[in-house]
Amino acid sequence: MLQPIEWKVVLIDDEQDIRDVVSMSLQDAGYEVFTAEDGKTGLNLCIEKNPQIVITDIRMPGIDGLKVLEILKDKSPDIEVIVITAFGEIDFAIRALHLDASDFINKPINDEALHLAMKRAGRRYTSRKQVKDYTALLEREKAETAQELMRTISFKTNLIESSMDGILGCDERGDLVIFNKSMEEMLGFSKAEALHRMSFEQFFQPGEAIRLKEELAGDKYGGKDRISFFETTLLGSGGRRIPVQVSAISLFDNGKENGLVCFFRDLREIRKLEREVEDQARILHQDKMMALGKLAASMVHEINNPLAGILNYSRLMIRILNRGTPTGEQLQKFQRYLELIESETNRCSQIVSSLLTFSRKSPPSFGEVRVDELLHRCIILSQHKLEMNNIRSSSHISADIPPVRGDFNQLQQCVINLIFNAIDAMPEGGTLTFSASHDKSGKTVIISVKDTGTGIPEENLPRIFEPFFTTKNKEYGVGLGLSTVYGIMERHNGRVKVESRAGEGSTFSLDLPSVTG
After folding, report:
1. Residues 387-398: pLDDT tens digits?
2. Helices 268-322/481-491 angle, 10° precision
3. 263 CB-contact burial (10 Å; exposed 0-12 / middle 13-18 / buried 19+)
4. pLDDT tens across 232-257, in order?
5. CATH number at residue 37
6. 397 phi and psi, to 5 degrees?
7. Residue 459 forms part of a structural domain
8. CATH number, domain at 179?
């Protein structure tokens, strides 16, 4: 049984409150806890304290949690790492699990989830250590034959049966000799059904067992006669398909292969999370398409105006040319018309370019985003719609505002959603004010969208960021806009805030970390 008092834990998080609360909870449970405020300090602390378990936030300045995980697993693969994720960061959680994190916990952190994750990590650490000792024992030159060890070693019971990973062992004939409890739960076969009644190949799709053994003979997945992180699909009871990650080792006696031990990690939870990420991406895209539909209608009118100007100036120029080679005052008019055509063409190009950028479907790409350019593009896209709804707009952007780190398209979607929300709140027209500033430290950039609309009733404020919550008529959509904004801001390690009173308008603020933060 685990004795928590013997366990060392390093906790890495850039938020002091989280470090205080989590470390206090773990210390009350008997763990020895060491804390760090960033990835670099945390890694140095791991070298100094040699912990069995590390808990790290994903989003941190400098070295982020995924990089911490990658470095730790490269240098000390036995360390168990639990990652802390925020709302909307399922994709990061999946990447962490693929990098062999033992678990993840969501913010806000509750004690039950924390201690369940610690229990799992503790069991994994113990199992890894015992498996390592067991494998070393199996490989000793002067040990008993591998087959005899696999059948008789007494500590197989508490080692193999307690492992959270499925463990399966077979002899040189392919007959099963090890089939632990996790394998029973994973596949739905009892040990009695499996041992000596089923062969190794029966648990795989046709050809997969042969492919696994072929990979064992190569060095692609970890070296000859062993593989790590090989993904395949097992066949459970009733033909169920179970995605797994396999680590395996061939066993030898006097140079002759006489067995195989496989360790299977169930990937169904990861696949479920991947589907959730896909669902989130679909919702994000659906929201963007709804916004794009609203923009497209107004953009047609917006482009028609400069096109009409270009057509009129072109006709005037043709008239001048029909009278002969332009000279004097006519030449000056001709040149002015050309300049106006160039100006109106650039205006059309800018509108179309902004619309194409917004509509482009591309994977998130985080980099430096200039806030003035972000707001400028959003205003271009929405200007005609604002005018059609009798809404005046103004902007106030601080000259020294630093760029933020983020995905331009997603941040643009946030601002566009806030603009549409404001338009819906001002059915009789009004004023929309954009502003961008930074806090005193320069670490946080604040983008605000303020309207003079109907405001939000106090009883609705706690629910406005919930998916599908809306107080509008069905014609306005399904209520994804503000929940999309909330999700995007969480992915950017930012916050969305609202100040509103019924009848007095609303101010939505996006707080984002600057690149200097």
Report:
1. 888 999 999 988
2. 110
3. buried
4. 889 988 889 999 988 888 887 777 87
5. 3.40.50.2300
6. -120, 125
7. yes
8. 3.30.450.20
